[in-house]
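Below is how a single chain appears once it has passed through the pipeline. First comes the sequence as given, then the structure the pipeline wrote out for it. We keep one example in the README because the format questions we get most often are answered faster by looking than by reading.
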Amino acid sequence: MEFEFDVVVVGSGAAGMTAALTAAYRGLSVTLIEKSRLFGGSTARSGGGIWIPNNPVLNAAGVPDSPEMARTYLKAVVGDRVPEEKQRAFLDKGPEMMSYIGARSKHWEFAYDRGYSDYHPEYPGGLAQGRSIEPKPIDGRLLGGDLHKINQPTMSAPKGIAITVKDFHDLNMIARTWAGKKTAMKVGALTALNMLKGALPLSLGKALAARLWLSLRDAGVPVWLSTPLTELITEGDTVVGVRVEHEGRPVTIKARRGVILAAGGFEHNLEMRKQYISGPQSTDWTVGAVENVGEGIVAGQKVGGAVDLMDDAWWGPSVRSPENRPPFFCLAERSQPGAIMVNDNGERFVNESAPYVNVVHKMYEMEAEGVGSIPAHFIFDQNFRDRYLFLGNFPKRELPQSYYDSGIIKKADTLAELAAKLGIPADKLAATVERFNGFAKQGRDEDFQRGDSAYDRYYGDPTVKPNPTIAPLERGPFYAVEMVPGDLGTKGGLVTDEHARVLNDQGEVIRGLYAAGNNSAAVMGNDYAGAGATIGPAMTFGYIAANHLADLEPVAAEVTSADPAPAKRAPRRAAAQNQEK
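Resulting structure:
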């Protein structure tokens, strides 16, 4: 069976849905295929943040940004690891993408996360107040029968609860600040109201995926779920379509203009992880969508696509689940005072509060030098446990016994007993804690400058003075938690240019083939500019790819909704977003 469209998009995360939506708005016939029975990919499982400097939401909020500041900052973060023209394309086209879709979709609503600092605000052009935005919560009832098809985040809130990034920040201080208590009351009141009204609010990544999905549905874009890519079709040196499996049958979909790969990374492919990434690896440590096994990258390689950054990921220190669930990705915990991370020598080796990618880079660096740091040991005392949320558990409550039974968490009355349980030198651990306690009392971390950056302090405790990120570890019992190098997804993928076109090893364009999101090598290089620096570029380069395809030859006037009208129309069930599946 064969179908034909102007554009075929592979993958239904933020990159793929933005690409398909843009193509439809530009008047192209487009279809989106997704291997999973669910849509949204890792985007739906994420915090949903978007990092795009100078976008309309930031401008409306009066953020003191400028294109020159953004270019200076991104260059400081990325360096020469990624060509400047690709960095420039992201910064130039990102705000345009937000405006373009916002003018055409009634579902395009976002809020500024004021105060969520850029990850390196001390760099030239960095902003301590941040550039991150997030989708506003949306009522899942708008999805109708598609609600059950959205990919589930690693930790789903009960029905009726919608927690935003700002709420999450404040709730971490529920036992310490009035802001935390007021946020808890606000969330409780909204939850009660939602339950009374029968509303099903979606927030974070699920809200972004839902908003994109609803926009696609309004634009009439056919989406084929449960349709894995099997290979790219080429004629000569040009990609002209895809072969897929749909409803148990092989199907050919021709692409008159091109194919956009947005099928995610390879975080759940252990063989690829071991092939490309040095050091200990596990597919149990990632929170990326389970479908992400790299077939989009491999398909691009088979037609000559070059790859880059394959040895890196969107890392983050994480805690394994004892119940065969995704790990707990630690955002706030590392900045809260009264805890440190140590290696197998019982020594600190990093600023615990640093951006999560950088912390894991240091874990792998130490491991490569022969100092056991994977897993690292996250050490805290009873004061920490009484004050802060940990692994989703409220302060003062005992942590689940399953963590102790599995050995992920160890507990002892003294540091010496804890060191014995961990098999690390007791004298070294005691000396490390004594030195850190001295820093805490003076408010200055002389070894790793923890708390110097505005990013460090974002999740700190404002009631702790003078440094909200450090406090002594002095009250037993003491706890040690296994900290592994988790990730949000892999960073490496197909090499693309400023138009999102896939390049070969000689830097030449592979005609008809584009890539965005984690299917492509990250524009952030080996670092991370701010919260949402995965999704922001993913959406932007999806938009860039679709526009480049639309500009290849004259097309009909732009419209705000699009009838796919392929040469042979897709089955009704596919055009209706597979409603019956």
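Residues 178-197 form the longest helix (20 residues).

See the next section for the split statistics.
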